[in-house]
Amino acid sequence: MKKGKLVFLVLTFAMSLLLAACGNTPQETFTKSVDKASKPADQSTTTIGFKVDELPTTLKTDQTSAMLDGLSLKMTVANDQKAQKTATTIAVKTAGLVSLDVNLDLLVDSKAEKVYFPLADLYDDKGNLTTLLDQVTSGMFSQIKKENPDLATKYVEVTSLAQDLSGAEAKKENVDSKEVEKASKDLSKKVTKTMNDYFNSLPEDRFTENDNGDITVKLTQDDITKLATNLSKLLDDKDVKADLQTIFEANGVSADQFDKQFDAMKKSVDNAIQKMKEDTKAKINIDVTITPGKNDDIKNMTMKVKITETEKVKPETLGFTVTMKTTDSVKLPKFPSSSDVISTKQLQKIISESTASYYKSLYGNDSTTIE
């Protein structure tokens, strides 16, 4: 599979996720649900799944790409806007060259501007995280866990982790959260309108409804190209650029950096679309199925994607499925108190001391360097 196609597919997938976060005919019900999905409830839980269904033979022979074989990813985000707290759980599994079975959590307290990672995830042996880390560290990871059992109840405050890793000083910016929220809502509204305008332009018979009320629209390569072109035109809107700049700068990007990143993003999008228009050797099919909820929202969504290289003697297909389920309720885990939290520097000190102890037991000194 050519790199340009995969870049374009990632773009389409990202836009689809943004749309999700963001007595009628099936077409009217579909677009009404899409519009409602851009206006999430104050309390909501969204689960997004991604699974590779089919991997081309040429990718299976590539050692790096082969890791995607059998990949499944599940991310659940519980968000309470009133409490300004979010809990995210990510589960990753693979069945390819490298076997992964990992679950990780992040707790975000937006009001306090804190992000926590529970170390209990590293002490949970239900998956194979310990085995993988032991392979990388020659068994040292298990030794650290054994010598520090109390860490299983602790949380690492990872808000400034990037700063600690880079050694750069933190730049404290005065971020107006209301401005960021407004920019995000305005951007979501415009993206949703662009999507719905395109769906409404399609013939009604492109939308089908089954006996369970599920509505499906089948999108072709031509649909994806046109839809992506319409979305890319949003980047020419000065208000859209201003909204993006507000969001980027709230995440520490300077005005100069934003201009460079924005220009690069726009160029990349336009190039990907142009390559897709010129490519006659690939066939893309996307089936999008939604289950409307009682309040015209999207209760469930399934997006099945197939990209086939048609010029080959034996056509190869990359296939994957994206799923989404949303409920207007939330159950947040208990957030840590100050006594339960350690900094990344404290954790680094503990790891350093355990590492020295580990090597001393092996080589009779406290050096971490093997001669």
From TrEMBL:
Superkingdom of the organism of origin: Bacteria
Keyword tags: Signal
UniProt-listed PROSITE patterns: PROKAR_LIPOPROTEIN
Secretion signal span: 1-20
UniProt protein name: Lipoprotein
